[in-house]
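User: I've been going back and forth on whether these two constructs are worth ordering. Before I decide, could you fold them both?

Assistant: Sure. I'll take them in the order you sent them. The first construct and its structure tokens:
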Amino acid sequence: MIELRHVSKAFTHTPSAGEASGVRHVLRAIDLCVPSGCLYGLIGPGAAGKSVLLKTITGLLRPDTGTVHVAGQDVTTLAELDLARMRLRFGMLFQNNALFDHLTVFENIAFPLRRLEELGEAEIAARVEERLACVALPGFGSRMPGGLSGGQKKRVGVARATVTRAPIVLYDEPAAGLDPVTSQKIFDLLRAEQVAAKATVIMVSSDLDRLLTVTDRVGMMFRGELIFDGTTEEARSSAEPRVRQFVHGLTDGPL
């Protein structure tokens, strides 16, 4: 469903004292294949390039070199209008939820339906209520985001990300800032949604203890490189020092 071939991306900035260059290489020759129907976990330390990789997959950023294929289409060659059409295949849960504070929960979830699809109000209402039921928030449609807990906001974000029934969904830190029990409930919910929709999912998360309970495959990024790509069990048993240290949270190691 998603295939990256030799993708690189760099940004220029004003060099600091002692810095030889003002170029920061964020992605370095990334080769990645995410099969259709896979829940793929993307892990790695901060500033490894994970969020930039998600933006490159959706076409929000264009790589300096390499190609990005989504469902057989080369995203890097699409014109802006075709790129907008391609993005209809995506759902997205942002790290900070990105809910509109001035809209109710119902209006937040209905927003992509009204922007991207031609549906009547009755169909929109039915879709929103169905999503609210799936995320265990029935009757919350009239509430405002400011009155929700962190876990409830995440659930509303999940409902909005999946309401268009997109075949590809990207989750950026879906459990950030949540307690362990709520985090596990969010991950279990995302897995159930992915299985029910047979969607292809890429999930970026620092909560490895819970992330690895739901993933099919895992990739680890380090300083812009994809240093590991394999099954969840292969990630847990990897002998690669950086992967082993990160996955098991060890204090001794190269990281």
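The second construct, handled the same way:
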Amino acid sequence: MNRLLPLLLAVLLSAACAGPADDGAVASTAAALGKADSPDSADHACQVVLRSVGRAPGGNDYETDCEGHDCQYVWRGAVDVAEALPVTSSVHVLYHLSSDPTWWEVEAHADTASTPGFRRYAFALADQLFGPGFDAAGATIQLVAFVRDADGGRLFDHNRFPGDFDNLALTADGGFAGNDGGVCQPVLGSLYFSDDWSETAYGARRQGGWLEVHYDLDRLPQCRGTHNGYPAWDLVATARFLPGGQLVEGSVRDFVSNYGTPTNEAIEKPLLVRIPDDAESVQLWFRNNSGAGSTCQAWDSNLDANYAFDIWPAADDPRCLGVQKARDLHAESDEMVMNEASCLAYDVAANTDATGCELRVEGFGDGYMGHYGIPFHWLVTYLRVGAVGGEVLNAGLFTRAVDNKTGVTSEQFSLGLPLGDGLYRAGLPYGVTGFQSVQPVDVRVEAYAFFVDVRRPSGSVDRLWVSHGGANYVLADAFALPTTRVYIAYGNVSWANPDALVYESRKACQM
């Protein structure tokens, strides 16, 4: 089975899990930070992080708890605690509704999900909040996660908000949901080895970050011995990082347990590895061997060449600044654009105009999808690469945008997804609703252009631009004229008029 990362909607609905609403909230006290005799302190070093909180859909509304009292909505969420903190510390969430001055707390409990470098805890809230029929238009829920040590000291999560008394505030405008705002995220790159003998990479493989290896056991089904009816075999992955030569190996198989006794039903187990700070690449291979006196071994090593993947430098390296790439993953439509952080494996030596039909814009659209009433907006473009006089490395979309909340201007280089025959699809999500673990995006695109990176026979890389003679395009250059709206599942894409200025490269190259 081909292993892909969860679709967007699967992430959005991830909170809809079974289990009790909560363990019952108990009255508590607000954080007493900054006082000399207080055992409370603020964490700004990613020791405790509230990852997500929100109501899960249930029936025609949201999940409710109606046992023994009026029905109350249930909020579910997750807290991550750094592995360096003692496991004897307990994890809690402190909260209150704006109409109730009393603070309440619930305890979070260890969860099977995990974030590299952290232990995961899950919690649920219902007591002292509200349910169906409550006028919540002006209500606010304030909450903050904390760890209580053996001496009663409380360490409060203030990683997202700089102020020691700034808590996460849930309001109707945000659907009474929140997340970590992207702080304290481990750098994680994932590799999927599927049973169709394809290899797929997701995420950022960076020096000092984490590498997660997923291996489909059906790729290597040989040497599955047993002993007294129980499994006596293992499938081991080996990773070698270069140039340092560091070797890490570990099993990528587990067995379904029958009340603690392993069965012969094997299941995948990801291998999680810390990437050395000096790594520039990683080689991987796999070995299936049978024990219990057997010498049977089977190898998956890319025909003895090993599987090789680049390791990226830190995110602030010039080759990574503002670089993202399109993922071959779509929640509702092939036109939907979902990007992830990336890096260039080369330096750009020169920037020039694509005046010889090396690149032309075949399509430019503004997309919208609103499944479950959760809006998602993006720009999408199709680019055709012509004769370039060298090797095409990437083609994509450049944007300069302003964050509508902070006013900060940023530039993004969105690398496109090759579709074959010189065609690339690229784009930029510019309006994403933050929900659970989905990070919000709210930017205004001020300018954009298109580029193709070409490695010349000399080895140097040139970036060729379609940018209206270096002036860049604005949204009116695509959408001032009447557009063509094409409907997709739960949304639509408005495509630029054929006479729009954004298509000047296409017109010039069709003459």
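Notes on the second construct follow. The helical segments are 8-12, 476-479, 504-509. Residues 79 and 400 are 34 Å apart (CA to CA).
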